[in-house]
Amino acid sequence: MVALVIRRSIQSVVVMLVVALLAFTLFRYVGDPVAMMVGQDTSLVERAALREKLGLNDPVPLQFARFVVNTAQGQFGISYQIGRPVAELLVERMPATLELSLVAALFALFIGIPMGVYTALNPKKWLSTVFLTISLIGISLPTFLIGILLILLFGVVLGWLPTFGRGEVVQLGWWTTGFLTASGWKSLLMPAFTLGMFQLTLIMRLVRSEMLEVLLTDYIKFARARGLSNRAVNFGHALKNTLVPVITITGLQLGSIIAFAIITETVFQWPGMGLLFIQAISLVDIPIMSAYLVLIAMFFVVINLIVDILYHVVDPRLRVDVRGAQG
Amino acid sequence: MCVAPRGNAVRHAQRVLDSLHRFFDGDIWYSFKQSRVTVTAAVVTAVLVLSALFAPLISLQDPFDPAALDLMDAFTPPVWAADGSWEFPLGTDNQGRDLYSAILYGSRLSLLIGFASVVFALTIGVGLGLVAGYLGGAVDAVIMRIADVQISFPGILIALLIDGVARAVLPNERHDELVVYVLILAIGLSQWVQFARTVRGSTMVERNKEYVLAARVIGVSRPRIMLRHILPNVMGPVLVIATVSLAVAILTEATLSFLGVGVPPTQPSLGTLIRIGQDFLFSGEWWIVIFPGATLAVLVLAANLLGDWLRDAFNPKLR
Question: Distance of CA A133 to CAs A136, B156, B282, Å?
């Protein structure tokens, strides 16, 4: 177990270093950082001074080392377009993205799992067919189209929900939250639904296929033979074993939710990190691009690491050889 | 190669006919005919692909040609609305572009980018998979580690990133003409992993079979063994992945264009049209979004259904 944790941690560090190298290359070699930062009328002397101050004349490995150290401390440089430290911008935008992703993930889990269980237990009922059709549509309709259709229906035609922004937010220290106001919740509904829809269909299909498989196993038959109630068999025995892969996949999907938030945030003009990143790409604002890259990679690497380790904790079959060795 | 003798050509044609016969008598064709949903999906896909292919013949104007557009025609509603006209059956966008023609040309662009990026991903993925599976050892380890890292990130993020870098590297004024290639590169590179993993798996099984051993004994070179002997035997699952990848690729292109980092509005793809339309939702011009959106959804749904069916048809366990 300890060996596994160490091995996986080393792997994660290597991945992060590779990502950092990518981000560094992007920052250092795409365009001239000095030309991007100064105005047209800056003299050559001033430019040379800035170049020296930024350390761009040092050997490249040294520059990379400095980049890694700075990044690890959360210093991502200054945005070319906005002219403020990137770290500050990210911190400002992060609560919006995280709140949206959290609500979307909970929505996907708490609707997706029951839907999956229902379709597995009652495959012949008409409601199952409805659920499966919804899931197929959910997979085929692009996220942004779902968002636009929602805006058209609830925003334009019915006029019930706001179509952009976060509504009123409350400041809690450095964190801004939309959870405490009615308009915040109203603004959150459509984006969270849009973002959660794809994950919901994924979770539902996964739960369904896992559950169908588990229901065919011998211990379920045995449980029925013992005369246990349907409820005890279905939920006490079958669902419990279904949830192991579901937990893993959901964990891994958490990262994709944050990534897919880019699209949702663009549709609803949600002031999160994704919107910042998209704007940075179209304006070639490289410090923001590379910072976002590093941050997202870190999310993914940490989540993958935790899921991998959890998997070994939850699934005893993966520990067999270790226990065998211990005696 | 030299010109094949006549007899050879006839024999070749005969062989093709034979395999066609076998195909139509076989269970794959049978299972295809049995599934009404699949037949519908295939017909829909065929219609969409053909109309995209022959867009210049069946469209009413060339939507990519600024001279053909008249701003006075902008925001004409579809023909059944009060002030619609047969000149623009599905209405026009903000530039006075006929939406019906724009959708035809747009799906042409979407399909082109989709197909090309799948072919690109397939070539890289199958190539690396073959090499990794056949050679094993350090080469295998390196390729598969890269694949492991890449697969833990969603494809759209990778494509977005490659697109963003290309945007930064290329000079601004050349970006519009190169954008199609950039998109093919970005989407293709975001999808090779699945091909590589599958092909590597089947190659490792095939490698130890007797026909490969026989080929090695008579001194066939490694590249030839991989391409002529192993490749044909690992292509089955690759076709299934390719169909599903096509749906994903079309979606990715549409998403990138919608986000404003894909095809520019001067030559709109389906995603770009939807992006244009989103700005006019609130003023009531719903048709600019709805028609391209519906086309995109139907296209992707059909490709997904075909992929689902192919996966089942090629899976001997389910037969």
Answer: 5, 25, 30
